[in-house]
Amino acid sequence: MAQIKYSGKTDIGLKRKNNEDSLVINPGLGFCLVADGMGGAAAGDLASRIFALTSESTFADFKGQSEKETVKKVQKSFYLSNQKILEHVNENPLHKGMGCTAELLAFFDEGFVLGHMGDSRTYRFSSGKLEQLTTDHSFVQDQIDQGLITPAEARTHHLRNLIMRAVGVKEDISLDLLRGKVSAGDLFLLCSDGLTDMVDDLHIEKILARNDSLTSKNEQLIEMAKSLGGKDNITVVLASINPDNHIFP
């Protein structure tokens, strides 16, 4: 497996009373995740923690040796988390409405597998360019895809927080599963919408392009989101493929 460096940080932001985001970084097992709880009083913070803890348990014996096994672990993390959240709501009716968006990135010998649900995002910064790997599962993204509104209009749309898919909301889940190769110098960014609702892709790209440490880049992204309003919890995880790694050309 490639040598990978990680950095992660979560911040409550400037407007929220509690942090409903969760993150996990496990360099030894080669995976990381970001989960953004939904539901507020309906225990969104608990939903994101359930996803984080379930994924950690699922990956406990992960060796990162094959794409097939990596796909199975990612899928199992989402399906088990979905089941556990629904079971919790069944036992605690006052928590009806809880759920979470989630990004789960796992590396194996030759590449990566990414699971995605909701409007949290995963990007890859490579060769000086930022690429959004995921597509938001949101009402406004659907409107953009249909040509009904522009991306600029979506940023201020009154329904921009309406999510079409999330973990723990329905019995049957529709999971986006992405796979790809990694190259030396690739930098992956997982984040909750507390970052992307405040900071546009151009400014994210500029920060990731700087010759700073992962920790510094992480802090700069969060501080920029806060300087622009910090309306939500902000969580950022960075995973960098060692540019000196001889495995990858």
Describe the structure.
- It is a single chain.
- By secondary structure, the protein is an alpha+beta fold.
- The protein has a single domain, classed as PPM-type phosphatase domain (Phosphatase 2c, domain 1), CATH 3.60.40.
- 31% of the residues lie in helices and 27% in strands.
- The chain contains 7 helices and 10 strands.
- It has helices at residues 44-58, 67-91, 139-145, 151-154, 193-196, 201-209, 214-227; strands at 4-11, 21-26, 31-38, 99-108, 111-117, 121-126, 129-132, 176-181, 187-191, 234-241.
- The strands form 2 sheets. Strands 1-10-9-6-7 form a 5-stranded antiparallel β-sheet. A 5-stranded antiparallel β-sheet has the order 2-3-4-5-8, covered by helices on one side.
- A hairpin with a 2-residue loop joins strand 6 and strand 7 (129-132).
- Helix 1 (44-58) runs antiparallel to helix 2 (67-91).
- The two termini are 14 Å apart.
- Mean pLDDT is 91; it is low at 245-249.
Which key terms come to mind for this protein?
single chain, 249 residues, Phosphatase 2c, domain 1, five-stranded antiparallel beta sheet, 7 helices, disordered C terminus
Unreliable segments (pLDDT under 50, ≥5 consecutive)? 245-249
Q: What CATH architecture do you see?
A: 4-Layer Sandwich
Structural class: alpha+beta
Question: How many E-type strands?
Answer: 10
Strand order of the largest sheet: 1-10-9-6-7
Radius of gyration: 17 Å
Order of helices and strands: EEEHHEEEEHHEEHHHE
Which band does the percent of strand residues land in?
Answer: 25-35%
Tally of separate helices: 7
State the CATH topology: Phosphatase 2c, domain 1
Mean pLDDT: 91
Helix content: 25-40%
* Number of domain modules: 1
Task: Give the CA-CA distance, first to last residue.
Answer: 14 Å
Overall morphology? globular
CATH class assignment = Alpha Beta
Largest beta-sheet characterization? 5 strands, antiparallel
CATH superfamily: PPM-type phosphatase domain
